[in-house]
Design goal:
Largest sheet: 2 strands, antiparallel
Strand content: under 5%
Shape: globular
Length: 451
């Protein structure tokens, strides 16, 4: 793909701010969804702050040579529930989140050291294009249900799914038209324009629905803005509920050995699974920008950035971070790989998390509007995976079976649980793909002997 802005390019200040806002809009929904799902006092503003700080750490470790944003990881949701479920109090649970992230981050650090001394050739052997390509596609395809579900989802109870669908499809249409036909700035910020179009349309429906007493037309929820009290300082600026502050000194005193074992069992196995997603995401992004990120800045640096970034972000926001497919999709569609954009996006995450009206405004973006955007984002991820293995010879049974296993288990949504440890869809597909490839590796040997 021919990039408009490469990794080291520096767009003008105005364009950079717009690109950063676009990245923020792309990653925001998923980043604030994790604390909303886990609950127990975790806040969206703290998650945004943690994502911004974690991304700073990643960019520093990679020397600004990898345009990746780190956001809240869905893979660790089960682990986070375990941290609270095994705790005697919420205060202990908050420290459990932090300790678990430290354990998971340490897994990344250990793997990074191994890569430093052993190189990355073993990864290419273990995960050739016939495995990485379908796995990358599954990252997008496994999220397709979420995108379609959001597309017809009203943010207000009683809102019509058809009105939501119209708003979502208008968002998607405007995004596609801007990205395809616009010749100037519109081509670089199609998501901002698309989301604004969907938001305005949803607001128009809401006004009509309110005036005509037709609640079915109202699919946008302004309650977050209505709850603001501008008579107080917190109505303008408020400090997020950082995890280490929620835990306090009392929480540390209640931690026991058995609780630490519970945290270890909940977080460490998932960390190995997320490592596979880390590889797939960086392989995908490498194909998009035409530069092998596993060699420059190198897998060691990306792993350290991801691992240490997870540790730091959890200290503030409670949520372990991971590389974001939405961010990668944004790079693919806009053809802007400038890491300055990621720096600015991380800054905006931190700034927005402190400004109450901005956080509230972001929370009012309707689910259907984000669903329209995500159809394009997730679709680009899936298609980029197809590109990665288009030269693979599928006439060979070995390659055919490997790809088949990955696609069917991935699209089918295979999830395996061992107690409180959950191996999610992408990881299941990748693991089974690797095992299939190893099991059928003799086909290659027989072909070599025949020659």
């Amino acid at each position: 793909m021919e990039l408009i802005y490469g990794i080291k390019d520096k767009p003008s200040f105005g364009k950079t701010v717009l690109f950063a806002i676009q990245q923020l809009l792309a990653i925001m929904a998923a980043t604030i969804a994790v604390p909303a799902i886990v609950g127990n006092g975790l806040s969206a503003s703290a998650a945004l702050f943690g994502a911004g700080v974690g991304t700073f750490v990643y960019l520093l470790f990679t020397k600004s040579a990898s345009p990746v944003f780190l956001g809240s990881s869905f893979a660790f949701i089960g682990s986070m529930f375990s941290a609270f479920g095994g705790a005697a109090s919420l205060a202990i649970g908050y420290w459990g989140l932090i300790i678990g992230a430290l354990m998971a981050g340490l897994v990344y650090v250990i793997i990074a050291v191994i890569v430093k001394f052993c190189g990355v050739k073993w990864i290419d052997i273990l995960m050739p294009p016939v495995i990485i390509g379908p796995t990358v596609s599954i990252i997008g395809l496994s999220l397709s249900g979420n995108a379609v579900g959001d597309l017809m989802k009203s943010s207000v109870e009683g809102g019509s799914a058809y009105v939501a669908l119209i708003c979502g499809l208008v968002t998607l249409a405007v995004t596609m038209l801007c990205s395809t036909y616009s010749k100037k700035i519109g081509r670089l910020i199609p998501f901002i324009i698309g989301i604004c179009a969907g938001y305005v349309l949803a607001s128009i429906f809401a006004v009509i629905g309110t005036l005509a007493d037709k609640p079915a037309l109202v699919v946008i929820n302004y309650s977050a803005l209505k709850a603001l009290n501008f008579k107080t300082v917190s109505g303008y600026i408020s400090l997020p509920k950082f995890t280490f502050l929620l835990g306090g000194a009392e929480g540390l005193k209640g931690i026991t050995g058995s609780y630490l074992l519970t945290i270890f069992a909940a977080y460490v196995p998932v960390a190995f699974v997320v490592f596979a997603e880390h590889l797939a995401d960086h392989k995908n992004l490498s194909a998009i920008i035409g530069q092998d990120l596993l060699k420059e800045p190198g897998l060691t640096r990306t792993l350290l950035g991801d691992g240490v970034g997870t540790m730091v972000s959890t200290l503030f926001g409670g949520c372990p971070n991971t590389t974001y497919g939405e961010s990668i999709g944004c790079v693919a569609i806009t053809r802007n790989a400038s890491t300055i954009t990621i720096w600015f996006c991380a800054c905006l995450c931190i700034i927005f998390s402190l400004i109450s009206p901005l956080v509230s405004l972001l929370e009012t973006i309707p689910s259907c509007v984000m669903g329209g955007v995500c159809i394009a984002l997730y679709g680009f991820i899936a298609v980029s995976g197809f590109k990665m293995f288009q030269k693979v010879d599928l006439n060979k049974n070995r390659n055919l079976f490997v790809a088949s296993v990955i696609f069917i288990t991935g699209v089918g949504g295979m999830v395996v649980s061992f107690g409180k440890v959950e191996i999610r869809t992408v990881a299941c597909a990748l693991i089974l793909g690797i095992l299939t490839n190893v099991m059928l590796s003799k086909e290659k040997d027989e072909a070599a002997n025949a020659e």
